[in-house]
Amino acid sequence: MVDAHQTFVIVGAGLAGAKAAETLRSEGFTGRVILIGDERDHPYERPPLSKGYLTGAAARDSVFVQQPGWYAEHDVELHLGQPVVHLDRVAHTVALGDGTVLQYDKLLLATGSEPRRLDIPGTDLAGVHHLRRLAHADRLRHVLTSLGRENGHLVIAGAGWIGLEVAAAARGYGAEVTVVEPEPTPLHAVLGPELGAVFTDLHAEHGVRFRFGARLTEITGQDGMVLAAVTDDGEEHPAHDVLAAIGAAPRIALAETAGLALAGREEGGGIAVDASLRTSDPDIFAAGDVAGAQHPLLGVRLRVEHWANALNGGPAAARAMLGRPVSYDRIPYFFTDQYDLGMEFSGHAAPGSYDQVVARGDVGKRQFIAFWLREGRVLAGMNVNVWDVTDTIQQLIRSGRQVDPEALSDPSVPLPSFLD
């Protein structure tokens, strides 16, 4: 039973944490709500950091989840710039870096993830960057502007979503860009070689140079500044700046030290939670990037790092904290914008889980929908420069029904007809 004397603490003031606090209030919770973040900025959304804000198309203020005054107006206590350094499950307390100890009745861990670091010489040079936080984007936006003005070179380690979006932004500023990727195509594990090649061609047309099948082994510099990036094939690539975009790791240290159950590596890691986003401790929940959630529809444990999971997972966890019945079965969804290509991806198709990829439309013109199938059932769908189809794709995934792959590839067959 939830009452007005209870205290709900949210650790992590990103999108998931901020939306959880918002939901607690909108659902009528009148107890104490405390939102703790280790950054000094108010809660913000992360997609603009590699998209609109980085490219200069969006203002800095547009990234924030709420206006700064919203939190006081809704009696949400903010502790910004304060890491949580200890979680005591027995005492139901969290300790902050400044020594403050806060009691909780229910706790939400929305600690997110952090960029993986390059383990090579030279990463301490001033021109080596990561992109995860607003402060990173502030700095990188300034760097890209300077590189474009001076015809400078940016080397990006990793051809995942962040690496490609930053490459597109950098070319928009006029910077020279080289992307180093150990796989044979961008996004190889997600899209496979055929559809990964779509992004190779897109970026090559805009002047990006790729070095596939290679890894960075050293970043060289002088007087603390980057001069070049060296790959394991012995090639030296001129560079004024280097971006490490080799993935992210869930921030589980607090949960691990407290003895909460963790998801396995093969499940994507993170804090293990059930379909209601509850951890192995009945008074602690987890949401967003850090949560390895048992998906009730897909039947697997997933850790999803994308915006929509934070947007929807935070509110779901808040409702579960309030004792409401929750079964978090959202279809994983993410999107990207690169140059003139807009894409939405729905579903989950891990390598080896599908037996067929079907394209509907013109792949060469980058206006198509791709479907990942297993035994005729749609596991995932990606629409590229084709709009207003996401709901239908997600309904196809949810239905679990078999479809005719040949008909699915035919644009003259209406997509909703596969749901009839």
UniProtKB/TrEMBL annotation:
Cofactor(s) the protein requires to work: FAD
Keyword set includes Flavoprotein: yes
Ranges for domain FAD/NAD(P)-binding: 8-313
InterPro entries: FAD-oxidoreductase/Apoptosis, FAD/NAD-bd_sf, FAD/NAD-binding_dom, FAD/NAD-linked_Rdtase_dimer_sf, Reductase_C
Residue ranges of every copy of the Reductase C-terminal domain listed in the record: 333-417
SUPFAM superfamilies given in the database record: FAD/NAD(P)-binding domain, FAD/NAD-linked reductases, dimerisation (C-terminal) domain
Keywords: FAD, Flavoprotein, Oxidoreductase
Protein name according to UniProt: FAD-dependent oxidoreductase
